[in-house]
Specification:
103 residues; alpha+beta; GIY-YIG endonuclease; 2 domains; three-stranded antiparallel β-sheet; 4 helices; 3 strands; 20% strand
Length: 103
């Protein structure tokens, strides 16, 4: 029997976001808040609050989504949390000088 994987995002007490993946989201949030790993990003940023999660039945899709979310800007993560899909799309558009639309 395959367990679901969850890609999740927590908001830390210092307002930073942490993105991770787990097969037991409740246990993982408890671990973050109990501070079971002193080397963890969230250890000195407790308590954390779960603000987003998505479940996956495919391991590779979960890892790919986690990797992608970790690269997103704060604004884009907050649009995702708010389920503001138009804003997520806007923030996905490349606006740097090298973009063909800006030449």
């Amino acid at each position: 029997m395959f367990k679901l994987l969850y890609v999740y995002m927590v908001k830390c007490s210092d307002d930073l976001y942490y993105v991770g993946v787990t097969n037991d989201i409740n246990r993982r949030i408890i671990e973050h808040n109990e501070g079971t790993n002193t080397d963890a990003f969230t250890f000195k940023r407790r308590p954390v609050q779960l603000v987003y999660w998505q479940d996956f039945s495919d391991y590779n899709q979960a890892i790919d989504w986690e990797t992608q979310l970790k690269k997103w800007s704060r604004k884009k993560k907050e649009a995702l949390i708010a389920e503001d899909w138009e804003r997520v799309k806007e923030l996905a558009i490349c606006n740097n000088e090298t973009n063909h639309k800006n030449k």
